[in-house]
Amino acid sequence: MTDLIHLSAHSLAQKLASKEVSAVEATQAYLDRIDAVDGAINAFLHVNTDEALLVAAEVDKARSDGDTLHPLAGVPIAVKDLIVTKGQPTTAGSKILEGWQSPYDATVVKKLRAAKMPILGKTNLDEFAMGSSTEHSAYGPTRNPWDLDRIPGGSGGGSAAAVAAFEAPLALGTDTGGSIRQPGAVTGTVGVKPTYGGVSRYGAIAMASSLDQIGPVSRTVLDSALLHEVIGGHDPHDSTSLTDPVGALVEAARMGQVEGMRIGVIKELQGEGYQAGVLTRFSESLELLRSAGAEVVEVSCPNFRYALGAYYLIMPSEASSNLAKYDGVRFGLRVVPEGTPTIERVMGATRAAGFGDEVKRRIILGTYALSAGYYDAYYGSAQKVRTLIQRDFAAAFEQADVLISPTAPTTAFKLGEKIDDPLAMYLNDVATIPANMAGIPGLSLPGGLADEDGLPVGIQLLAPARKDARLYRVGAVLEALLEETWGGPLLAKAPEIAGRK
Amino acid sequence: MTAATDEILSFEEAMEKYDPVLGFEVHVELNTRTKMFSSAPNAFGDVPNTNVTPVDLGLPGVLPVVNGVAVESAIKIGLALNCKIAEKCYFARKNYFYPDTPKNFQTSQFEDPIAYDGSIDIELADGTVFTVEIERAHMEEDAGKLTHMGGATGRIQGADFSLVDYNRAGVPLIEIVTKPIEGVGSRAPELAKAYVAAIREIVKNLGVSDARMERGNVRCDANVSLRPYGQEKFGTRTETKNVNSLRAVEHAVRYEIQRHAAVLDSGTPIQQETRHWHEDTRSTTSGRPKSDADDYRYFPEPDLVPVVTNHAWIEKLRAELPEPPAERRKRLQADWGYSDAEFRDVVNAGVMSSIEDTIAAGVSAAVARKWWMGEISRRAKLADLEPAELGVTPELIVELNVLIESGKINDKLSRDVLDGVLAGEGTPAEVVEKRGLAVVSDDGPLLEAIDGALAAQPDVAAKIRGGKVQAVGAIVGGVMKATRGQADAGRVRELILQRLGVEG
């Protein structure tokens, strides 16, 4: 069963249900793959071998006992290391949390446990999810399985790379400005940011509370829908979580039809700044949707031009406050400086040593933006832009059922290429940020390989709030049409990873 | 403890020269079962750091959830203070680094408090009434409790180390802020005390707080500034923090007035700062400088949705409000027919509710007052307890009263009966039985005692026979002594007069 790891989560689940494969076999196959290739990829910060196998064994026992199991029971999963887990470390990719173990499980982790999905381990990320390349991890960068010299996107590069490198069939990510979708785009995988409030944030270490959202990472649209249904739904621990039921997402992915649907192309999210190969693949996707009976229309969202600027005020403002708790007093790193260790000096030394440059940059930005005398001009104006972006979306969704754009302006860039140019790095999120600002759902799926560099291109679909099902409906159709043209999944074209331990 | 080094003016002189303006921030801890934003118990006095959840410790990934009961309590307080209630209000983060605040921000309210624009009438001891305008009452969470070990001052500066107890972190607080209180003149210290007492009474009456100042359930920050008479602009204020008894509030305001006056007299400007109150020296010392531009980087709490109220809910809560304490006092005094002085004593002794309950149980207002202001207050003072804490129930007083009115026991014996009941010897009737305390109603032993007393005081007997009936008291006293108080004094008097053949 060497091909076990190449199965989609859905196919694996079927083989588990029919007892063709055991959960222990499947889990072991993934653990072996991690062992073989993660030295080269560095997707995992922690591998949860014993517990994963234990859960898998429980599933096999329950199945042989004839117990009713969740459809995904026994399907392994990787969890972004921003989401707290009992019994495993949670670092948020930061030195300041090195060695810390959460005494509680995030709500989504409880749901994974309830579904008896073996947790393979915790995946790498930019420190506190701040970055678009995973280079800002305190534990070294993750590499893109398509080209080990390139970034896997960020902040959720670890989850996307793990899934792309067949180290996991599924993973959880978090998306504040594109941290699920952009890594999905550059690794040739699927990533979904649900409607804000659709998935509980309880236990996701906060970067920007009003923007953060947990979502699925997978190799197929249907797999994301399956995982989305596991993790979605109301949580009394999260006041911002929606009370709506999660919806028939799997059914939407299976139904997959676009005939008569209006697909809106966002005028402002193409053209200048977008790589030629990205735009070519994007146009092809539009053609395929048209051929399937969708009506492709152009919509304009003029205020998107302010989105990036406003995002880089709101996000750091909230982050500066959310990250205040990392002070060495109660948990995590504590640095006691030379001389008289007053509380201020201990806090200062701990934060100076524990946080990386990008985190410090955003804390300083946010602290400044919230300061008396600057609040109205910065945070206040940014909130107004947020309202304008919501209005742009509302108007666009009058004309279209789903919106479409490239997920990221470029394919994966080289490690180190933008590390010293924060603005260039931030621009990578220009197409994904508006969805977070408006709280609407977005999905990225592979759109082929760019001609100039042979690297994956992502196609982003956006739907109105609470209409996540539309993403799966359209996404599944486009995926099927594209795979037809490729003669199979895009990831089949990915190079073999030379095992470097 | 730091000794006071500040010059102060006499209060009288200060009042001659300057017009005081006051302002109060009173923090009320609610007595909800759980905390403001978590399911941890809201309880006092437990083992440190046991009433905590990951939320109260501010662990990574946690989120707050608003306690609905606390919101109701906040609305009730707002209504009792005659405030408007916001239709929609938000929580905000107040950002500052301090180890008693687990997240290094306090979740509070900033631009839109749940209650605003209210007022209450404060009555001073002599009946003078001041109206205090309430600016706002808002919801927030308490901080943890720091204990600084080592060092001279008990403060964080100079301590060897500090211990922190997060049991209190997240306890629901309502902060009640007054508008500047002007025109009180020399009554300022009295008003300060009366205002805090009124707030305490209101929240206690509402049942939303235990309102025990010694436990920090009600904490007062007192703002004081002085200005020359006739000047409109306020002087620079100081804020004396955490003045935690009524007496201390009065003293602290008085002291700050005297201190400000001396500083102003010397031509120095007042430093805008917080002050610490020291009960032992009855003085304040400088805290930290406080400017209006203190930058807490407030912004709306993104982890919480707005609190939305509605008319029907507010009106329902308004209809359920208990009678305001001031109105209740007026009603009770009229019902009971006590004089102003009698009633004030009752209120000051803290036995008004006990008297009300005792009357309801079936005795007259006079009898209830006699018990609570007399014997029970006396015992409370000896035991250093509140009268209501002695365990004397209204029913017990009724039973004792029935025994007295039926002549079974007299006032003196009733105290022994009370002793017995409180010692757990049974009901009053049982104690009378067990201790043999019944009044001697058989005339035989009484006559014997009367003869003895007459023989012992022949000169008194002669006076009575001679018509000086008022002298009979001395003989009655002798008889009561001989019977160890167990005689009915009225009957004894009758028998003495009969014995001596004198008309009573």
Automatic annotation (TrEMBL), chain A:
GO terms for biological process: translation. Its EC number is 6.3.5.7. The keyword Transferase applies. Gene3D superfamilies: Amidase signature (AS) domain (3.90.1300.10). Keywords: ATP-binding, Ligase, Nucleotide-binding, Protein biosynthesis, Transferase. SUPFAM superfamilies: Amidase signature (AS) enzymes. It comes from the Bacteria. It catalyses: L-glutamyl-tRNA(Gln) + L-glutamine + ATP + H2O = L-glutaminyl-tRNA(Gln) + L-glutamate + ADP + phosphate + H(+). The active site is at 80 (charge relay system), 155 (charge relay system), 179 (acyl-ester intermediate). GO terms for cellular component: glutamyl-tRNA(Gln) amidotransferase complex. Residues 25-471 form the Amidase domain. Pfam families: Amidase (PF01425). GO terms for molecular function: ATP binding; glutaminyl-tRNA synthase (glutamine-hydrolyzing) activity; transferase activity. InterPro entries: Amidase (IPR000120), Amidase_CS (IPR020556), Amidase_dom (IPR023631), AS_sf (IPR036928), GatA (IPR004412). PANTHER family: GLUTAMYL-TRNA(GLN) AMIDOTRANSFERASE SUBUNIT A, TRANSAMIDASE. Belongs to the amidase family. GatA subfamily. Heterotrimer of A, B and C subunits. Allows the formation of correctly charged Gln-tRNA(Gln) through the transamidation of misacylated Glu-tRNA(Gln) in organisms which lack glutaminyl-tRNA synthetase. The reaction takes place in the presence of glutamine and ATP through an activated gamma-phospho-Glu-tRNA(Gln). This is Glutamyl-tRNA(Gln) amidotransferase subunit A. It comes from Arthrobacter cheniae. The lineage of its organism: Bacteria, Bacillati, Actinomycetota, Actinomycetes, Micrococcales. The gene is gatA.
From TrEMBL, chain B:
One of its GO terms (biological process) is translation. The keyword Ligase applies. Keywords: ATP-binding, Ligase, Nucleotide-binding, Protein biosynthesis, Transferase. It is an enzyme of class 6 (ligase). Residues 353-500 form the Asn/Gln amidotransferase domain. It comes from the Bacteria. Gene3D superfamilies: 1.10.10.410. Its EC number is 6.3.5.-. The keyword Protein biosynthesis applies. GO terms for molecular function: asparaginyl-tRNA synthase (glutamine-hydrolyzing) activity; ATP binding; glutaminyl-tRNA synthase (glutamine-hydrolyzing) activity; transferase activity. Heterotrimer of A, B and C subunits. Belongs to the GatB/GatE family. GatB subfamily. Allows the formation of correctly charged Asn-tRNA(Asn) or Gln-tRNA(Gln) through the transamidation of misacylated Asp-tRNA(Asn) or Glu-tRNA(Gln) in organisms which lack either or both of asparaginyl-tRNA or glutaminyl-tRNA synthetases. The reaction takes place in the presence of glutamine and ATP through an activated phospho-Asp-tRNA(Asn) or phospho-Glu-tRNA(Gln). This is Aspartyl/glutamyl-tRNA(Asn/Gln) amidotransferase subunit B. It comes from Arthrobacter cheniae.
